[in-house]
Amino acid sequence: MADDPEVELSSRCAYGTAAVGAMDLIHLVRGCTFDDFLLVPQLGVVPSRDPARIDLTARFTRGITLRRPLVSANMDTITRASMAIVLAEEGGIGVIDRGFRAGDIGPQVAEISAVKRTQHGIVADPHTIGEPARIFEARHLMARTGVGTLVVVDGARRIRGLLTERDVRFVQGGATVADRMTPREQLVMHEGTISLADAERIMTERKIKKLPLVAADGTVLGLITAKDLLKHREHPFATRDDHGRLRVAAAVGATGDFLERAVEVQRAGADAVVIDIAHGHSTVMERAIEQLRQRLGAVDLIAGNVATADGARFLLDRGADAIKVGIGPGAGCTTRSATNFGVPQVEALVQCRRAIADRVPLIADGGLRRDGSLVEALLFGGDTVMLGSAFAGTEETPGEIVLKAVLMPESQKIVRVPFKVFRGMASIGAVRDRLDLEDAAPGELETLGAEGLEVSVPARGSARTIIHDMLKHLCSSVSYGGAESLGDLRERFWSEPGRYLIRLSEASRRESFER
Ligand code: XMP
């Protein structure tokens, strides 16, 4: 039968997908999640499945667009600065979790600053030093800020020279900055502002690594470094702000120190603030949005989580700039078994998407156990997907590697295997760390009503490799779907869902996903 396309097609129409329009989709997905469906391959139209050539652009919030629709979850075993940097370099974004002690805002701010500091376009406010300063002071400043080039200025912030790490290396005694700097007369500088492409041309022609930007009177306007320009080339899809810095988001709660925390993370440069609570369709959330909007002004506010049409409309009406969808699908989550509330993730996504159309972006949060589910999350409703367990155990996750003895089944030998911890943010461990309850008795901890798991996962390589694989698989999905881009695939899917959807039987699910 498989050899005869006519027979195959007609049998599929008869026994596979029903002819569903967008109106019927909501009924078709009732009670369903990712593994309930396959998508029907269509006539492929892309010449190549190369992620560099297929457009995967997605809206993260009203104000922020990503070239890749991937977001790393705000979990304390997943996203700190290293993970957020990789995500942003690869075109997605990371959300720094709020899993720090209540009132202890500094550590979260430090993670955000670390992301914002890694790369620049034009460094608008370079670190400066005066000519009379001693070399040991310059060394201290370099060590403290992690910056290898200081702009030497006079009292009116006019440029006098540049001082780099090389200039201060091995210098003893009482030498001053003026003794060691490259003076202004020997510098190549640019008057006014400049595009990065033009800056690169000048730096190549003049064989320089630093290009100070100055006003006509010599006042420092900024600094461009070759290192930053190289990073821009190396990561052409990176998610950057208007200054060329990587973008990063930060999570806050809806009670306790949330207002203060939000103000501080915004000050540190967070590009979006995620109000992250388990039940986002609530009066607690309503109050939090109101207060945060008042305090933060125009910052992009992401609110969640919800899993129903009413929940999504509720957040839309209260002015959320993106909505996080998912109650209970997460791998580290026990909400559904503990409370019996939740909505299967595909149904949740379709409900929310239908309720709000494209008035605000949706983040499909949780439940992605295999790369094939990515395209489903993005078709059924997600503009982007948020991933936690998919990145668990990678080099970029926080936490120590622990060696555990494991019995190898074939050889019956015990070997020591490296593991890292992955835990739900509502697990006892995560809640205890956040609430400073280290000394609490076990009984007290049980009454916290944990809704999360803590597990050890084998340590593995870089999250970058996982992201590259995901993007390749997503591009293959676009190709199988007969589309030219992710946006195109989404349009095709929603205009004719019945053309794509096959609801699986138990047997076809086994055939598809069990290996
Ligand atoms: P995955 O499946 O990618 O999901 O690991 C990540 C998402 O899971 C959610 N999350 C939790 N949900 N209790 C919950 O009910 C928890 O302890 C918990 N921790 C994380 C969260 O939405 C995350 O983005």
> What's the pLDDT, averaged over the residues?
92
Low-confidence stretches: 1-19
Instruction: Give the class-level CATH name of the largest domain.
Output: Alpha Beta
Structural class: alpha/beta
CATH architecture call of the largest domain: Alpha-Beta Barrel
- Total DSSP E strands: 22
Structure report:
The chain is of the alpha/beta class and 515 residues long. The protein has 2 domains: 5-118 and 246-395 and 463-513, Aldolase class I (TIM Barrel); 128-227, Roll (CBS-domain), CATH 3.10.580. The protein has an 8-stranded parallel β-barrel with strand order 4-5-13-14-15-16-17-18, surrounded by 7 helices. A 4-stranded mixed β-sheet has the order 6-7-8-9. A 3-stranded mixed β-sheet has the order 10-11-12. Helix 3 (81-89) packs parallel to helix 4 (106-118), helix 10 runs parallel beside helix 11 (283-296) and helix 12 (309-317) packs across helix 14. The structure holds xanthosine-5'-monophosphate.
Short description:
With 515 residues, the protein is an alpha/beta fold.
Q: How would you describe this structure in keywords?
A:
single chain, 515 residues, alpha/beta, TIM Barrel, CBS-domain, 2 domains, eight-stranded parallel beta barrel, 21 helices, disordered N terminus, binds xanthosine-5'-monophosphate
